[in-house]
Each structure stands twice: as structure tokens, then as C-alpha cells.
Write the C-alpha cells for this entry.
Amino acid sequence: MAKALLGYVGGSDPRLLAEMRRLQQRVQDLESELVRIQEENDALTAAASHESLLESIDVPQAEPALT
């Protein structure tokens, strides 16, 4: 399969080489997007856990303001 991806099968057809370069660029773009989305997900998860931590504090009623 690697030989087919490198254009070995059938010679070095310029169309195959161009398609291979296009697909390699697409894979790189998708990997970059995956890293960005994972970082965004981690940030959202951290924010959600922080909010749930604040909600877990049990205050039965509001305390009166000091005068």
C-alpha cells in the first residue's frame, strides 16, 4: 500500500503525485484541527468542572449584609 501511495505503481504519474500531495496536506490540516478542538474541549471541560465546584458549595440561605 505504501508503494501505491508513493506513486510507485504505474510509474510517477504527475496526477498521482499531485493527488498524494493534496491528500498529505489534507491530513496535516485535519490533524491541526483535531489538536485545536482537543485544546478547546479541555478548556471547556475545565470551565465546566470549575462551575460545578462552585455549585457544590451548599449555602442554605443568603447571609444578611453587614451594616
The first helix runs from residue 2 to 5.
